Amino acid sequence: MADSKEMTINLVVLGRTQTGKSAVGNSLLGSSDFESHCSPSSVTTGCSLGRSCCISGITRRNGCELLLRLQVLDTPSYPHSGLSKEQVRDTVRSALAHHFGKEGLHLALLVLRADLPLCADERDHTVQFVQELLGPTWKDFTAVLLTHADKAEEAGFSEETYLHSAPTTLLSLLSSVQHKYIFLDNLKSTVKEERAIVLRKLLNFIRQNHYQVLLLKHNKE
């Protein structure tokens, strides 16, 4: 934090095709920096960094309001319709080192769809991919964002009943990241109040981690 009245949070969004990963980045930034639309193929093919303006009214320190700045790195999906796993991994790893190599990463946001089941193979492949990117301490620096929660609500699931009915594949993943998860209502994700709630939850995760950052280096294999 160069300025005691400002706090900069570095985030990366990871996830599968059509989970709403880029849309999450846009919602957090309050912008339309990242291309996001329905498509039969993967939309994002490279990494892109978005920066927010100063955000007020989210957090305080020592009784004084802090201005929050976000830096969000959008990434290609894995699996990808046009890129191999190695291409996606190396692209993301290089971008992480380039953008956050000095300041460090506060959180990786693993984006999953609340309205689709998480199968064992998908979970294992996803976890392996995140581990390869972030290293052995990935669990401390990863939070799960469950998008399309509005569709789960339409089906009659509250957050509590959803988790009660969720498969062990999802529950074990949430447990491994110390239950750092957020349900995102896609219909409300652009509403200012909803954005503030999500940002406060993310800051709480970072606070629980004692504001530690993950330092990343780009090592070619």
Automatic annotation (TrEMBL):
Q: Which domain of life is it from?
A: Eukaryota
- List the keywords (alphabetical): GTP-binding, Nucleotide-binding
- Residues of the AIG1-type G domain: 6-221
- Indicate the transmembrane segments per the record: none
Pfam families attached to this UniProt entry: AIG1
Enumerate the GO terms in the molecular function aspect: GTP binding
Q: Which PANTHER family match?
A: GTPASE IMAP FAMILY MEMBER GIMD1, GTPASE, IMAP FAMILY MEMBER-RELATED
Q: What family is this protein classified in? A: Belongs to the TRAFAC class TrmE-Era-EngA-EngB-Septin-like GTPase superfamily. AIG1/Toc34/Toc159-like paraseptin GTPase family. IAN subfamily.
Indicate what this protein is called per its UniProt record: GTPase IMAP family member GIMD1
State the organism named in the record: Galbula dea
Instruction: State which gene encodes it.
Output: Gimd1
